[in-house]
Amino acid sequence: MPEPVPRVPFIAANWKMNKTIADTREYVPALLGQLDVGHAAQVALCVPFTDLASAVELTGDSEVIVLAQNMHQEEAGAFTGEISARMLLELGVHGAVLGHSERRRDFGETDRALQEKVPAALAAGLTPVLCVGETEEEREAGETQRKLRHQVQEALLHVDEDRLADVVVAYEPIWAIGTGRVASPDQAQEAIAFIRALVGDRSKAAAAEVRVIYGGSVSSENAAEILAQPDVDGALVGGASLDAQEFAKIVAAAP
Ligand code: PEP
């Protein structure tokens, strides 16, 4: 049996609808200047569409990659206001966050659309960061695993077994996003191990390789403990990523 390849921690900033091009021009050099030499993580910036070109230019040949926060599944066509994988690739973008809970809740993003978006991103050579997670009510009702099973199975339905490990799955309990109520390390570990097992139902090899990360009120104060959990392969960071110094500290916390 070959030794499993170690999973490189994936630490991603989700700026959401924050920062202009001018802000990006301040942030990226500040971040590059703060990142420790030899840190363990792959670092990603998930930025608004309008900042993508500047972020790609400013990150240059550094190890920091740039992702979009959404993507349409079709290659082209009458989809006013949407952006395709080919448009992102042309800018030098590496991937896209797909199915963030804010898009599911506020903009009608569906599991059905994600069934097409995730394979479309992979086919184009982009890394999809698929977000899943339960509401507070679902957790209290003991429905967390049912919700995660549904979201993971639906979104990965049309992903071939040999591409499953190219998806990054972000476990983001909705009650922890933007609330300051971070999941406990045990809660994050348990849910993420469950997600890994769901991938394992499709492919044991992919389960060993796929990166499953945690998101929800991660800060430089709590990152190390969460990132130390055996199945937690990184973090998707919203609010705390808006400050380059704070985000660099979170990157430094990756084991
Ligand atoms: C997010 O939006 O993906 C997120 C995790 O936000 P926050 O870190 O602010 O909770």
Task: Write a concise keyword list for the protein shown above.
255 residues; alpha/beta; TIM Barrel; eight-stranded parallel β-barrel; 11 helices; binds phosphoenolpyruvate
Structure description:
This protein is an alpha/beta fold. Helix content is 41%, strand content 15%. The chain contains eleven helices and eight strands. The protein has an eight-stranded parallel barrel with strand order 1-2-3-4-5-6-7-8, surrounded by five helices. The longest helix has 18 residues. The structure holds phosphoenolpyruvate. Phosphoenolpyruvate (PEP) binds next to strand 8.
Write the layout of secondary structure elements.
Layout: E1 10-14, H1 21-34, E2 42-46, H2 52-59, E3 65-68, H3 85-91, E4 95-98, H4 101-107, H5 111-124, E5 127-132, H6 136-140, H7 144-155, E6 168-171, H8 185-202, H9 204-209, E7 211-215, H10 223-227, E8 234-237, H11 244-252
Parallel strand pairs: 1-2, 1-8, 2-3, 3-4, 4-5, 5-6, 6-7, 7-8
The structure holds phosphoenolpyruvate (PEP).
Phosphoenolpyruvate (PEP) binds next to strand 8.
Strand order within the widest sheet? 1-2-3-4-5-6-7-8
Poorly predicted runs of 5 or more residues: none
Label the CATH architecture. Answer: Alpha-Beta Barrel
Strand count, sense and closure of the main sheet? 8 strands, parallel, barrel
List the ions, cofactors and other small molecules found in this model.
phosphoenolpyruvate
What's the mean pLDDT score? 97
The CATH topology is what?
A: TIM Barrel
| Oligomer state of the chains in this structure | single chain
What's the helix count?
A: 11
